[in-house]
User: Fold this.
Amino acid sequence: MTTFNDLRKINVSEFTEKKGNLSYLSWAWAVDTLLQHDPMATWEFPEPTYFGETMMVYCSVTAFGKTMKMHLPVMDNRNNAVKSPDSRKVSDAMMRCLAKCIACFGIGLYIYAGEDLPVEPEPSEDELGELTTKIESSTSVDELVEIFIVTKAKYAKHPNIVATVRDLCGARKNELLSTEAEVK
Assistant:
């Protein structure tokens, strides 16, 4: 069964549109992706609400046995609320609200946090154990350099992991160099 963690790892960057300094996920792509993972998903748009001359639209999406709800003001291209919006502006806002609501299931959620790519999950204890074993069993400084380069790229968003691996590689390097000096 598809989980939130599965969906939040999907890189949606090539399916986003830029408006100003904000990114928007294509609603068509979001719907397509949602339906690939839950063909029984449904959505509806409750009646919009007026706030003075501006309007708020709403959407609820039911997927994976749960319903999420979201709201969004009808906005212009500078993200300001539109006074007396026409039907085109309302329709656009509804579809943006649908994409935003689908994001609550994980698909493109990172966009709303202002991120360019999905947040990488923390490595598991098993992954860290394997990495530590690999460092401890390395037989050359070149091997340690390669381990560090790969780790730095893979866990770039986790500086604490990179720092720990740097320290472990440094300690193993010192062991290898001192062993090498003793042999000479």
The chain has a mean pLDDT of 88. The two ends are 59 Å apart (CA to CA).
